Amino acid sequence: MGTRIVKRPKLSFMERIYLGPVVKGLGMTIGHFFGTLRDVFNWKNKKTAITMQYPEERWDFKDNFRGAPALVMDQEQRGKCVACQICEFVCPPKAITIWPTEFDETNSVEKYPDRFEIDMLRCIYCGFCEEACPEEAIFLVKEAELVHADKRDFIHDKEKLYEMGGIRNDRIMKWKNK
User: What does the alpha-carbon distance between residue 157 and residue 105 come to, in Å, rounded to a whole number?
Assistant: First the structure.
């Protein structure tokens, strides 16, 4: 099989000097510049404000914001997590780590998490953990400002996750002995 020669079309003079696209791009840039300049000096119109005055002004997160994962407790302040580890298995970046332990024979629940950690630097806020949890023990809360000075503080342990999640009323009381 031989080589195939591809005929290249001849470029016109304007295409060779590349003047048309350059002028078009320059016109677009000038248009954006004057549009931004108009918005800056149009201080009465708040819809076109460029800079938000944080922390006095904050974003209003609607329903499309997922938030950070947190564990919740039932109305008797007992953790709802039974350490089934489904959330750990479905987590795409492997940000969740659970160390399960067993109760004694008198309890109706077999396992609970001895340790439960979520590495918030790895979490991608996808919500798979919330969808997969059969006990409705993990929820995404509307916490948007996760700020820490040390990297180790971004690993949220069980106590921090329960603090973020709070208490949710549940009609199914799985912790009660039968």
Answer: 27
